[in-house]
From TrEMBL:
<dbReference type="GO" id="GO:0042286">
    <property type="term" value="F:glutamate-1-semialdehyde 2,1-aminomutase activity"/>
</dbReference>
<dbReference type="InterPro" id="IPR005814">
    <property type="entry name" value="Aminotrans_3"/>
</dbReference>
<keyword id="KW-0032">Aminotransferase</keyword>
<keyword id="KW-0663">Pyridoxal phosphate</keyword>
<dbReference type="InterPro" id="IPR049704">
    <property type="entry name" value="Aminotrans_3_PPA_site"/>
</dbReference>
<dbReference type="GO" id="GO:0008483">
    <property type="term" value="F:transaminase activity"/>
</dbReference>
<keyword id="KW-0627">Porphyrin biosynthesis</keyword>
<dbReference type="GO" id="GO:0030170">
    <property type="term" value="F:pyridoxal phosphate binding"/>
</dbReference>
<dbReference type="InterPro" id="IPR015424">
    <property type="entry name" value="PyrdxlP-dep_Trfase"/>
</dbReference>
<keyword id="KW-0808">Transferase</keyword>
<comment type="similarity">
    <text>Belongs to the class-III pyridoxal-phosphate-dependent aminotransferase family. HemL subfamily.</text>
</comment>
<dbReference type="GO" id="GO:0006779">
    <property type="term" value="P:porphyrin-containing compound biosynthetic process"/>
</dbReference>
<keyword id="KW-0413">Isomerase</keyword>
<protein>
    <recommendedName>
        <fullName>glutamate-1-semialdehyde 2,1-aminomutase</fullName>
        <ecNumber>5.4.3.8</ecNumber>
    </recommendedName>
</protein>
<dbReference type="Pfam" id="PF00202">
    <property type="entry name" value="Aminotran_3"/>
</dbReference>
<dbReference type="InterPro" id="IPR015422">
    <property type="entry name" value="PyrdxlP-dep_Trfase_small"/>
</dbReference>
<dbReference type="InterPro" id="IPR015421">
    <property type="entry name" value="PyrdxlP-dep_Trfase_major"/>
</dbReference>
Length: 472
């Protein structure tokens, strides 16, 4: 297992033309080799055998559609800090981080200790316990929109709770979502995430395109789809549906279609329109929460929604989500008017992880967020220069703790239609080439930073990226 740099004599031999010399590279590229045609290869014998077995027992060989890739999916053996190791012993600098949760890196000691200690005291109470009150109190202190809290397990559930609450509070049925935004895999919102353009309708009045066969479509008017970063379109659609919209839901920084920040003043306009129409504004902070700031994108961008949902980074790698919001709205749950339940809600082990994670994020905020932003900016700059040097048209954009690489000539990407013009097939090839070189990013070109990423990780990644660009 290449967990520490192997001695020079242990480097792969055979058809290796040029192995780089720095020790981190030697370590990460052990087990990989450059073929005579210049391509990098990884040994994936164990992974391939496991995948063949997996396909016999797991539908499609995976447990989430997000893990389907061309070729053999990553079979992880273990992870630590900024690194992953697969079952073949290949080591990767990891920018997927469990699709975002591991904001402190894999296995932060504070979280591991808290989880182990709680597991020994009981794993499933389905009853009240002290830590959930402490975590709710900290959420109310950290998150601008949090007057009251309810816990769930995963993001999709928290979104479901938020939408039901918005309907129960307003007595209205319809929801407005934005094209390109993802709010989980449940039927009411799995529309128009990455729709085929020939089905997507006009850019300023997109069609609601279902995401899957078998989806319950609901009544056509219950879901309105709007282009993002477009105030006139939102104004027009809200007027068209006046008196019907319970909520407008959005990712306040769009991270499921590139990593797109709202235009200056956009969120304020959305908030203003929502207030004018008596519609609740919901921020889906499943990705941005605790990643952009201890109070999420709403703290970072200075706009406070009525309701918000959190998940992923809030428990440092364990599965906890939360619905938070204005006390008078959340009171519809307090009184039992709007139903909210779940066997695993405020799961003691998950809550222990959340308590430890939030303590670190709050008490060491300068160090953690300083690293997330500085390291993210360094990596973005390195990738930009590598692309410029290689002559590959590329846009590297986003806040830093999360960002996107796009293969495109465009100088900005502001919404789904812009994203759809980028060369997504090239990004998929780049993803595969990076895996061969010891770098794991989200296949669509998204990069998550953690406070465990080091300057050496960044330097290694930029070198690997420069090399991988040669394959495009
Ligand atoms: C913005 C956003 N909302 C909701 C979800 C759904 O969360 P989960 O996969 O935990 O159900 C995701 C998942 O990636 C997400 O990115």
């Amino acid at each position: 297992m290449p967990q520490s740099p192997p001695a020079a004599g242990m480097r792969p031999q055979g058809p290796v033309l040029a192995m780089p010399t720095p020790s981190l590279r030697t370590c990460l590229w052990a087990g990989r080799a450059r073929r005579l045609d210049g391509a990098m290869t990884r040994t994936l014998d164990a992974s391939s055998r496991m995948y063949a077995d997996a396909r016999r027992y797991l539908a499609g060989g995976v447990s989430s559609d997000a893990r389907r890739v061309d070729g053999v999916p990553l079979f992880v053996d273990h992870a630590k800090g900024s690194r992953l190791w697969d079952v073949d012993g290949n080591e990767y600098v990891d920018y997927v981080l469990g699709q975002g949760p591991s904001v402190l890196g894999h296995c932060p000691p504070e979280v591991v200790e808290a989880v182990a200690a709680q597991a020994a005291r009981g794993m499933a109470y389905s009853a009240q316990h002290a830590a959930e009150v402490r975590v709710a109190e900290r959420l109310c202190a950290l998150v601008p929109s949090a007057g009251r809290v309810r816990f769930n397990t995963v993001g999709s559930e928290a979104v479901h709770a938020a939408l039901r609450l918005a309907r129960g509070y307003t007595g209205r049925e319809a929801i407005l979502k934005f094209e390109g935004h993802y709010h989980g895999w449940l039927d009411p919102v799995l529309f128009s995430v990455h729709p085929a353009l020939d089905a997507a309708g006009p850019a300023d009045a997109p069609a609601a395109v279902p995401g899957t066969a078998g989806q319950q479509l609901g009544r056509p008017d219950d879901l309105v789809v709007c282009p993002w970063n477009d105030v006139p379109a939102l104004r027009r659609l809200m007027e068209e549906h006046a008196g019907r919209l319970a909520a407008v839901i959005m990712e306040p920084v769009l991270c499921n279609t590139g990593a797109i920040e709202p235009d200056s003043g956009y969120l304020e306009e959305v908030q203003h329109l929502c207030r004018e129409h008596g519609t609740l504004l919901i921020f889906d902070e499943i990705i941005t929460g605790f990643r952009l700031a201890p109070g999420g994108a709403q703290e970072h961008l200075g706009v406070t929604p009525d309701l918000s949902v959190f998940g992923k980074a809030m428990a440092g790698g364990m599965q906890v989500s939360a619905l938070v919001g204005r006390a008078d709205v959340m009171d519809h749950i307090s009184t039992g008017k709007v139903a909210h339940a779940g066997t695993f809600n405020s799961h003691p082990v998950g809550i222990a992880a959340a308590e430890a994670t939030l303590r670190v994020l709050d008490e060491r905020r300068d160090e953690v967020y300083g690293t997330l932003y500085a390291r993210g900016a360094e990596l973005m700059e390195g990738l930009r220069s590598a692309a410029a040097k290689a002559g590959v048209p590329m846009l590297v954009d986003g806040p830093g703790p999360v960002f996107q690489t796009y293969v495109t000539e465009a100088s900005s990407v502001r919404n789904y239609r812009d994203f759809a013009t980028t060369d997504r097939a090239a990004m998929t090839r780049l993803h595969a080439a990076l895996l061969d070189r010891g770098v794991n990013m989200v296949p669509r070109g998204l990069w998550f930073m953690s406070s465990a990423h080091t300057e050496a990780d960044v330097a290694f990644t930029v070198d690997a990226f420069a090399d991988a660009l040669g394959t495009l």
